[in-house]
Amino acid sequence: MKIHHLNAGSMRPIGVPDGFVCHVLLIETDTGLVLVDTGLGLRDIADIGPRFGPSRFLMGLALEEAETAIRQVAALGFDPKDVRDIILTHFDADHTGGLADFPWANVHLTSQEHDAVLHPKSQLEKSRYLASQRDHNPILVPHTLSPGDKWREFSSTKELSEIAPGIVLIHIPGHTRGHAGVAVNTGEHWVLHIGDCFYHHGQVDGSGNVPLALRGMEQVVAADRGQVSANHERLSALWAARQPDLVMINTHDRQLLERARNIPA
Ligand SMILES: [Zn+2]
């Protein structure tokens, strides 16, 4: 499978000098196109207020139409209608904004995230899952992951073979209840999209230099801070192991996006 690494939403949150990207995967499979997350979409560009809530004032959103996934899919010469499946790491607005641009697509997520979106429990969940992100009635496909199914050191995984063999959904809670990583086998290597399990490469590669504002933001929006810390430790160990066939990326780190783009497909 060939993977295109897209930035579907530049941001400059207060106190984060490098800014944020929204790293979205566009995967070419034998039967169609798959997106991992969507970044921001055309409805966000048109009217961001109801789509993002008050956090838009902190996030410094660029809101460039050319960055939306649907415009980039078309610019690459594909028919957006061929995007048949979208796999979400989680349902925060900066990951789901483009869903409404692909209303025909099946939207895959963990059953835990599906439950959190439809039945929010905490005040944080009630405020983060905005109804405007799903008022186009997306086709949600929740997946129950089996604790016994392992992918590398992760348990609670499921190969989404109904989309394509070699795409694995991995439940990694912490940022949200049902947060997931998505591993994709290109044939040459695996790309592990770890979503918002960490924001900055310095949180896992030992290089430090993590902006304080970013650490604070991560804590404020965490569903479970203990799990977030545990995920940092676990992903730091995975990073340190330097598995030669593994490329780890997250959503918002610009350096990791550039690094992934420079790896031959
Ligand atoms: Zn995010």
Please provide a written account of the structure.
The protein is α/β, with parallel strands linked by helices and 265 residues long. Helices cover 27% and strands 20% of the residues. A 6-stranded mixed β-sheet has the order 1-2-3-4-5-6, sandwiched between helices. The protein has a 5-stranded mixed β-sheet with strand order 7-8-9-10-11, with helices on one face. Strand 9 and strand 10 form a beta hairpin. The longest helix is centred in the C-terminal third of the chain and has 17 residues. The chain starts with a strand and ends with a helix.
**Count of strand segments:** 11
**Poorly predicted tracts of residues:** none
Which term fits the overall shape? globular
Largest sheet: 6 strands, mixed
Assess the beta-strand content as a share of residues. Answer: 15-25%
Number of helices: 10
**Mean of pLDDT:** 95
How are the strands ordered across the major sheet? 1-2-3-4-5-6
Distance between the termini: 9 Å
Structural class: alpha/beta
Q: List all distinct small molecules, including ions and cofactors, that are bound in this structure.
A: zinc ion
Integer-rounded radius of gyration? 17 Å
User: Helical proportion?
Assistant: 25-40%
N-to-C series of helices and strands: EEEHHHHEHEHHEEEEEHHEH
Question: What labels would you give this structure?
Answer:
globular; five-stranded mixed beta sheet; six-stranded mixed beta sheet
Brief sketch in words of this structure:
This protein is 27% helix and 20% strand. It has 10 helices and 11 strands. The protein has helices at residues 42-46, 49-52, 56-59, 69-75, 93-96, 111-118, 123-128, 212-220, 225-241, 254-261, and strands at residues 2-7, 23-28, 33-36, 83-87, 106-110, 139-143, 157-159, 167-171, 180-185, 190-193, 246-249.
